[in-house]
Design brief:
The protein is mostly helical and about 100 residues long. It has four helices and three strands, in the order ααβααββ. A hairpin with an 8-residue loop joins strand 2 and strand 3.
Length: about 100
Amino acid sequence: MAMASPEPLRLDPYVVETLMRDLVGHDRRASAYLVYLVVAAASAEHRVALSHAQMAERTGLSRRSVQAAIGLLCRRQLIEVTRRGITETSEYRALTPWRR
């Protein structure tokens, strides 16, 4: 049985040319860049529900590193996090403040 090819991830040039250097080089937070890429790839234009464990699995990071990366990305207004209830998985959406 043949598997369908995944849809290619199209990144805004800003994500590679500027954001990567800023998060990885300047802030020394490569984990935040990886988490941003996971959220951007999974959410496209919609929100995506992912647990910290799922993000850790996708990035190869620890859950604690994912949590710290999410905190940084929220403070930098690069992702939006919502939760419907206290026991529900958080929903994430990648933001693109450079497009304003």
